[in-house]
Amino acid sequence: MAHRCVDGRRGCDRPCVGGNGGQVSLIAFGVDSLIELASAGVLIWRLTVELRRGASFARAAELRASRIGGALLFALAAYVVVAAGWSLWTRQGAEFSSLGMLVSLAAIPVMWLLSWRKLRVAEALGSRALRTDAVESITCGWLSFVVLIGLLAQMELGAWWVDAVTSLVIVWLLVKEGREAWQGEEADD
Questions:
Q1: Looking at CB atoms within 10 Å, which of 23, 42, 62, 119 has the fewest?
Q2: How far apart are CA 78 and CA 1, in angstroms?
Q3: Does residue 76 form part of some domain?
Q4: Domain containing 121 — which CATH number?
Q5: If you compute the radius of gyration of the chain from its CA atoms, what whole number of angstroms results?
């Protein structure tokens, strides 16, 4: 959770990481970190309900936690679409950020390992809510990768539109996983 707080703070701190021009993908990375932090809180709540009230309450808590996670994924997708669309509409790209590139580079292996472990535990527990949380970690890893590719392309090509276009790359994953999380067990049928 501490890692998410740092990523969220750094990603949303526009002058520090996102640049004064507001790098869409870096800010999305920060917002995703904050969403992942909220998802972890929901997951802790879900597990606490099961521990305190027993397995009979776990199913309802699981569905509620999964839906909250799905809503958070939809919120991130909406932010990315609006922010990238605005950037393309106004034809204003973001400034290059060396610190943003370093944070993104460091986050890729961390998110891969974290999501892999979460997926293993989710499968063992049969928890869609934990799977949704793992997907949010996967999304963060992909966002990090997209940010890195976008920053490198921007550095080499100097194209103003690169950040917005690379940000839109992960929207399909956010919507797909958000829909599955929202549907809960219905998605398995």
A1: 119
A2: 24
A3: yes
A4: 1.20.1510
A5: 17
Whole-number Å distance between alpha carbons of 25 and 145: 10
Residue ranges making up the domain that contains 148: 2-183
Dihedral over Cα of 143, 145, 149, 151: its sign: positive
Which pair of tokens denotes residue 108?
A: 């890729």
Each residue's pLDDT, cut to its tens digit, for the chain (189 residues) gives 444 444 444 444 433 444 444 567 677 777 777 877 887 887 788 778 777 877 667 777 778 877 888 898 898 899 889 988 988 998 877 677 788 888 889 989 999 999 999 899 889 888 877 887 888 788 888 888 888 888 888 788 888 788 788 888 888 888 987 898 788 755 454
Kindly state whether residue 6 falls inside one of the protein's structural domains.
Answer: yes
Report d(CA 125, CA 172) in Å as an integer: 27
| Token duo for residue 135 | 């997907």
- The count of residues in the chain is 189
Q: Which candidate, 168, 77, 177, 189, places its Cα nearest to that of 133?
A: 177
- Asked whether the beta carbons of 101 and 151 are under 8 A apart, the reply is yes
Question: Rounded to an integer, what distance in angstroms lies between the CA atom of residue 130 and that of residue 69?
Answer: 9
In this prediction the pTM is 0.67
Which tokens go with 1? 């959770």
115 within some domain: yes
